[in-house]
Fold:
Amino acid sequence: MHLETLLIIFVALGAGAFSKGATGMGLPLIAVPIMAGFLGAQQAVIVITIPNMVSNFWVMWSYRSRFHTVPGLVFATMAGALGVAGGTWFLATANERMLTLALAVCVGAYLVLLAFRIEIRFSGRLGRILSPLIAALAGVSQGAAGISSAVVAAWVRAFQLEKEAYIFAASTMFLGLTTTHFLFVLAAGLFDRQLLGQGVLALVPIALFLPLGMRTTRYISKEWFNRVIVTLIIVMEAKLIWQGVAG
Structure:
């Protein structure tokens, strides 16, 4: 692998790690498309599983004091993990392009709700029902299309949490999804010694840039924080539409 390629991948992982630290999401969204251009899509997705798990655990543990501010988090995370299993099975039996377009429709519907200021909020009995269902959808998205950021963002925003609790909830959900994903990849025999080494090496920019992103969170106002999250969802929606149309 050329030095220029390594440098570009390092920058992509660093930018993704910074975004992850600051907002609780953005690592695969930023890093995977860039890495895929040099390593190939499958290799990029496999390599990112290790830094994904580590970064999510890191952020989750850093904000663990917010655990009690997110109702039903354990149950929702379990529902998301089950969704990964279902999504992986569904991927093997359904058309991937249709799955991507279906996910784009779901995310697009959420953006329409935001545009018209229609808030989804988890409260009471309805919240206890909707929370694990949307978490399961996030798992299905992860297993079927390798993408769950937009659905997880929609799930967390419905709790109307403050910034630190938001980041904790998102990272906890992502940790459940990415750990399940890693186990499926491992069980499928997709990891070899080279890919394992690349995954471990990818932890270097994570270790450098994730803490920097986490330090910026306190300086971001709630309004700007929400704008960043919505921007990430819009970027993800554009990416889904492009993948679905390009086929």
User: Anything to note?
Assistant: The longest helix spans residues 163-187. Residues 3-246 form one domain.
